Amino acid sequence: MAVTEASLLRQCPLLLPQNRSKTVYEGFISAQGRDFHLRIVLPEDLQLKNARLLCSWQLRTILSGYHRIVQQNAALS
């Protein structure tokens, strides 16, 4: 199922589209009491499950323990 702008913004309200085709989003998310920069790059078919998450090594370390949950949420969107 393709991600819609509304569903992505509902889940991550501090992420904003960076291009007209809305395949790149950038902004901030909070984790463990800190704010982290995050960039999401969607493939041309807009499948969230195939998105690339670009972030700092600190956020990557935090998210590594939640890999299955991140994948599950992408599949549900």
TrEMBL record:
CDD domains: ELF_FANCL. One of its GO terms (molecular function) is ubiquitin-protein transferase activity. GO terms for biological process: interstrand cross-link repair. Residues 6-73 form the Fanconi anemia complex subunit FancL WD-repeat containing domain. Transmembrane segments: none annotated. GO terms for cellular component: Fanconi anaemia nuclear complex. This is FA complementation group L.
